UniProtKB/TrEMBL annotation:
It comes from the Eukaryota. Residues 19-54 have a biased composition (Basic and acidic residues). Keywords: Acetylation, Chaperone, Cytoplasm, Phosphoprotein. This is Tubulin-specific chaperone C. The keyword Ion transport does not apply. Supercomplex made of cofactors A to E. Cofactors A and D function by capturing and stabilizing tubulin in a quasi-native conformation. Cofactor E binds to the cofactor D-tubulin complex; interaction with cofactor C then causes the release of tubulin polypeptides that are committed to the native state. Residues 1-54, 146-171 are annotated as: Disordered. Tubulin-folding protein; involved in the final step of the tubulin folding pathway.
Amino acid sequence: MDATHEVSREPGGFAGESGADKIQERLQKRHQARAEDAERRKEAKESMSVAEEKGEYFSTSFNTERASIEELLSSCSGADRAVVTPRLEEATAKTLQLQKFLNDSMLFLTQYELRRAQAALQKLQSSIVEIREEAQPRKKFTFRARTKATDKVSDAPSPEADTPADSGGNKVDGAAESVQCRFSDLDNVCLTKTAEEIQKRDVLLTHLSNCKVRLFGSPSTLHLKHIDSCEILCGPVSSSVFIDHCTNSTLAMPCQQLRTHNTTDTKVYLHVTSRAIIEDCHGVSFAPFSWSYPTLEEDFDLSGLDRDRNNWSQVDDFNWLAAGTHSPNWTVIPEADRKTTWDP
């Protein structure tokens, strides 16, 4: 009777599989893993090279266009008003295009490059405002104030029509003090500006407390300074919103860029096509823009903002540089707590 030979079986092996076959299989797997790792390193290197090339292209193109705008603004110095006006319009259009170019390039820019470009844009926007105000004579400004008690509309001269809001200076975050669209030094009133009053102008709100403000239309820029316990709703801002010293308030606005300083306990309902920036802030919370009014779509078209791009929850805190850790200075408003209906 023939002896019965047992078939050797090893974990993970096949019946009758020789040691040489298993060694060959392991070598093949190791070779494949090395090849895949080499391919990943190659792709990463190529991706880095592409990013560097894109960064160089952005820097060259951005600086060239910025210099062109600066030269255009410089040519306004000493020129007649008839000459300054079209040059300012051209500079404004070019600045908006430069802002769009920056927004489209954000994915491959470093934080340093992004901050430098944003600072350069802010400087251009401030220069445009200053030159526009120098070229236009200051006008006596009136506003409509509607008190909650009487709900009546009355015209009254702005307390700040002939005096600066901040003594010792002639600008508020880059906005000229003589900017025509503004509300200043008011308490416990309802304030409204129509699209016709606002369209493509710079709007300044300063030293307001316990006020409800409705800004229809599409401003060029919006500046908020020294705001306390207010509700401010604004139509699409074609470029930037600047906020400084705001507390215990609710704000809603679409814009290309948001910069917020020295702000506490404030809710922001936001549509922003770049990224929001906060500095020296705490207790600031964000949610998607939810205010609506009959001509909102038309104002979005006029502003040039992309309705499909909203980075409301992507916030850069310049006081919090810990990578991978969320800043404690801002939060997202829970869906259940978000405001979706607004009083007229």
